[in-house]
Amino acid sequence: MAPFCQTGNGACGNGQRLRILSVEVVEVTDLRKDGYDVVVVGGGAAGLSGALALARSRRTVLVVDAGSPRNVPAAGVHNLLAREGIPPVELLERGRAEVRGYGGQVMPGEVGAVTREKDGFAVALTDGRAVHARRLLVAAGAVDELPDIPGLRARWGRDVLHCPYCHGWEVRDQAVGVLATGPMSVHQALLFRQLSADVTYFAHTLPPGDEQTEELTARGVGIVHGEVASVEIDGDRLVGVRLRDGTVVGREALVVASRIVVRAGFLAGLGLRPAEHPAGIGQYIPADATGRTEVPGVWAAGNVTDPAAQVGAAAAAGTMAGAQINADLIAEETRQAVAARRDPFSAESESRLCEQAMGDRRHGI
Ligand SMILES: Cc1cc2nc3c(=O)[nH]c(=O)nc-3n(C[C@H](O)[C@H](O)[C@H](O)COP(=O)(O)OP(=O)(O)OC[C@H]3O[C@@H](n4cnc5c(N)ncnc54)[C@H](O)[C@@H]3O)c2cc1C
């Protein structure tokens, strides 16, 4: 067999006949003029999993993704079986390739507005393009709002953390601080105490009550009173927490409960608005266990509807929603087929007959 030229320029041979190996990256970005069975808004774990289920069910599916998954500052995705520690960007690259492998389209872009139209939705992108979708899967995720304390945002996902399951192991046995920001903060301190014996609770503007003080003290969590002014950084590492009175408490990681805000402004035209989450952690779009929202034809999956979902749970919800949407489309198509069978001269049956006879050759007269 002739050797392959690994460089692709044919220059690695020694007089032998070479076959040039070229890697062609084809990204399908031409939008279908007749629209899609499903448009998925957001190409994170939830959206890509939904798209995979749909593409494998031979549905035309378009994923529009603005490219800012929630966990992008983190070095790796943890607690994900068989892909433990994979960089978030690599996970999504693999997911996009898998969806494309079954004919799904994934393209960069931002959905600006969705409005109802005949047989589905008009999905308008912020760059001026628009597509029709019979069904919509909202998987646009959420953003984390942090307290307005200098230094926090720049360290987010690195040594300013929120989730013991995402990065607790990585800070085990370190000097960990927990910033009191809301109802979850004492719970967070107790969870991180499982990972380190050196946990300090910064009461900040939310001093713990008597019962909470007893719980923290009983578990060996130190309590520091006083408002936090900033985090101390040395080189590229968090080294402490500075209080308003100037005291610096040495810490290697700081746990902060963010307020979770969903990215759902584009749904306003459908009357679908986020609600406050009952756990007091931020917002969510209400949906049932299959992802079905209160707006017919619209499903939601991932952090947009479950702010606590980790990557595995977001992916599972996307798969569930994709399967449910496929089932919903099948039900609609079956109703239409039955109606056509009962009335062979209806406009619907004529249109179906025309489609079968002409396929792609049909025109708009
Ligand atoms: C710092 C940090 C670390 C984490 N670490 C872990 C971990 O180790 N393990 C783990 O399991 N979980 C982790 N998580 C949780 C994880 O980020 C979420 O579970 C996951 O991102 C949810 O997936 P999703 O698909 O719902 O949303 P996302 O991953 O946020 O994806 C949503 C996508 O939709 C796009 N989008 C938004 N609006 C629009 C629009 N209008 N048009 C088009 N696209 C749009 C966004 O740009 C984004 O690409 C972490 C979270 C944070 C904050």
Structural account:
The chain has 365 residues and is α/β, with parallel strands linked by helices. 26% of the residues lie in helices and 25% in strands. The protein has 8 helices and 21 strands. Helix 6 links the parallel strand 12 and strand 13 (222-224). The longest helix has 32 residues, at 311-342. The structure holds flavin-adenine dinucleotide. Flavin-adenine dinucleotide is lined by residues 41-47, 64-71, 73-74, 77-80, 110-111, 139-141, 144, 157, 166, 263, 266, 302-303, 309-312, 314.
Q: What keywords describe this structure?
A:
365 residues, alpha/beta, FAD/NAD(P)-binding domain, 5-stranded parallel β-sheet, 8 helices, Ferredoxin-NADP_redctase_2, FAD/NAD-binding_dom, NAD(P)/FAD-dependent oxidoreductase, flavoprotein, FAD/NAD-bd_sf
List the topology elements.
Elements (H helix, E strand, L loop, with lengths): L3 E2 L13 E2 L15 E6 L3 H12 L4 E5 L22 H14 L3 E4 L2 E7 L2 E6 L4 E9 L3 E4 L6 H4 L4 E2 L2 H4 L8 E4 L5 H9 L5 E4 L7 H9 L3 E3 L3 E7 L2 E7 L4 E3 L2 E4 L2 E4 L12 E2 L6 E2 L13 E3 L10 H32 L4 H12 L7
Parallel strand pairs: 1-2, 3-4, 3-8, 4-5, 8-21, 10-17, 11-12, 11-17, 12-13
Antiparallel strand pairs: 6-7, 7-8, 9-18, 14-15, 15-16, 19-20
Helix pairs in contact: 1-2, 1-7, 7-8
The chain binds flavin-adenine dinucleotide.
Flavin-adenine dinucleotide binds next to α1, β4 and α7.
Summarize the structure.
The protein is of the alpha/beta class and 365 residues long. It contains eight helices and 21 strands.
